[in-house]
Amino acid sequence: MVIDSFWIGSIAVIILTGLYTIIGGMRAVAYNDAVQVVVLIGGSAVLTFYGLNKLGGWGELRHICGPDMFNLWKPLVPVGQIASWSPIKELDASGAIVRQAWYFNNNFPWLGMAICAPVIGLWYWCTDQYIVQRALGAPNQKVAREGSIFAAFLKLFPVYLFIIPGLICYALVKKGLVPELAAEFNKPGGSQGAFPLMVQYLLPPGLRGIVVAGLLSALMGSLAGVFNACSTLFTVDIYEKLRPKASQSELVRMGRLATGVMVLIALLWIPVVKGAHGLYEYLQSVQGYLAPPIFVVFFFGVFWKRLNKQGCFWAMVVGFVVGIFRMAVDTPITLRLFDEYPHGSFLWIVNNINFQYFSILITVISAVVMVVVSYMTDEPNQPQIQGLTFATASADDKAETRGSWNWMDVLGSLVILVFIFGAYIYFTG
């Protein structure tokens, strides 16, 4: 009997992370994040250097991978395929797609990237409790803003330190420079482990251990942040509202219990993650299904003071139902309970729609529901939304915000924008 290391590692990481989150709370999460980010970025940079050195430089990487792998702006319809508005997918004798609906194209077309990515990004950075909890921990607006700018700067590194090593691994395998690496990479599902495979076969023993420790620490830090954020939401927004006289010790106890429940949910969700075609694509799709209604409520609510709580509520409900429906349709396929739905059926069409396009659809539905319901019901109570939208911000609010940033904050933001737009311009094939 062969024991799958994936299950051992997944269960161990989830349980250990849950334990130290339950015991240490937000303080444990913060200390772990502060340490692991240095180790992870430094180790990944070393891995990228080792890989490029082994391969023969950046020019060789671009030559072997070809322009398509360096193109963020992929066509709406892949080259060689015939597009259709009808929900069809036709294959040739070899199994290659020759004709399909343009909205079935799952090769990250530019339209989906241009619209869906900002929706997920604004949801994550502006409303996700995982991020918001850290911002709310700042003593004032100035520190919160500086922390956000610094976090955005750190967020630039994954593109170069995680995606590029994947390309390097592919190039090394294609060139045959590391036979052991190629053998593991070419196994079924082996390409999903490109980063750890490079760590194993390129780095010397001592450095290898440091990078692995950084990877595990980063994974556990992310899980701990999610566990802690969920327990805080449950304790503060639900339990404390139901029991307003609950003592601090009772709230802490319920928070720990909520963390334990999240650990159990994470354990139960392992088979779904394991069955996914790729962890990155799976996470992006889940976020794409759940983020749009939250994005709509936040983004529209900040800029449009006429929208009210009834519109927000029903936008969240309808958007969430549509997103959960898509997840429910996808999950049996992800779990490989069967290969696909009956060809041409409604569920088959839904399952084949590009997740980014479906995310755009949810965004539009949520926005329409929010506007229609808001205008069908009474205007919001103006004193209640005072300072919550740009239109209702008082002179004191504006003065406080203006006093919390200076030219260094502007410069830092501009530098980050230059790097982002520079990457979009450079990675065009």
Extract low-pLDDT stretches. Answer: none
Number of domains: 2
Counted beta strands: 3
Largest sheet: 3 strands, mixed
User: Main sheet: which strands, in order across?
Assistant: 1-3-2
Which shape, going by the Cα principal axes? globular
Q: Assign the CATH topology of the largest domain.
A: Sodium/glucose cotransporter
Helix segment tally: 17
CA distance, first residue to last residue: 46 Å
CATH homologous superfamily grouping of the largest domain: Sodium/glucose cotransporter
Q: Which structural class is indicated by helix and strand composition?
A: mainly alpha
Short description:
The protein has helices at 5-55, 58-65, 110-127, 129-136, 141-155, 157-175, 179-185, 194-202, 205-242, 248-268, 270-275, 279-303, 309-334, 346-352, 355-376, 395-402, 407-426; strands at 82-84, 89-91, 97-101.
Account of the protein in words:
- The chain has 429 residues and is mainly α.
- The protein has two domains: 1-65 and 124-268, Sodium/glucose cotransporter; 277-393, no CATH class.
- The chain is built from 17 helices and three strands.
- The chain has helices spanning 5-55, 58-65, 110-127, 129-136, 141-155, 157-175, 179-185, 194-202, 205-242, 248-268, 270-275, 279-303, 309-334, 346-352, 355-376, 395-402, 407-426, and strands at 82-84, 89-91, 97-101.
- A three-stranded mixed β-sheet has the order 1-3-2, with no helix packed on it.
- A hairpin with a 5-residue loop joins strand 2 (89-91) and strand 3 (97-101).
- Helix 3 (110-127) packs across helix 15.
- The longest helix has 51 residues, at 5-55.
- The mean pLDDT is 83.
